[in-house]
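Figure 2 data, in text form.
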Amino acid sequence: MELYQLQQLVAFAKYGTLSKAAEMVHTSQPALSRSMQNLEAELGVALFSRTKNHIALTEVGVLAAQHAHVVVSAHDNMIGAVREADRRLRSFSFGSIAPAPMWELTSIARKLFEGKTVSADLEETEAPLIRSLNEGAYNLIILLRPLGETDSGGKPRYRNIPFIRENLFVLLPSTHRLAKRKTLQLKDLAGEKILIHNKIGFWYSVCKRKIPGAVFLEQSELSALREIVSASELPSFRTNVTNSLDSIPSDKIAIRLSDPEVNVRFWCICLTEKEAEYAPLFDAMEKR
């Protein structure tokens, strides 16, 4: 017997008619009927009871369909597992709670893992990142804190590696009412109209929560935001990382924000069982 015959038998058991089963396995009804007759001949038993206008599985046919389902599922699982293993060997993927450490790690990984596809996802909260790490969708994740959970044997479940620090600044016109201050808090920006990129991970929710009454003028394209910031008198945000990447316009000043929530240390985290595999990456991070 052939795998496609078992797939067809499973389809008939699920949908109950030759026409619907044929549609779902992308064949014609006469071809499906002949295929099931050939399967019966191969097994030497009748799997269907047939009348002029009706066809149904016999009791033995139901049993055969159940076994066929196990075989088809095992086949599909094997394909999925093999392809996933190949994908992991050919790629390195991670998730991050903020963009700057994501940029830094992407640069390191691309140099270290030549020939692999390096991909990264940005999230505003840590729960989906931790879940994806545990499920094997990510090689590692970047959070604002180390993870201290242990496995059933009491051993550490995660390896936590300190990564870069990032501090938030507000960029103000030199004529702004707050421009003479050496430091500010987010609450000092209450009621302001503020330009903000809406793909900044955890920073986005912190700024919205900590600045009462502010009107956020959101931009999804970073290049467009840079142009608007350069031409506008409205406040915007920078960090010590982005300050090093983009020069501060001569008519503006970057003032550091003192809130603890926006002066952070990032952590790279992998499953302990993968620690040895990623040791070269961690060494490269420390030398950065």
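Caption note: The first strand starts at residue 48 and ends at 50.
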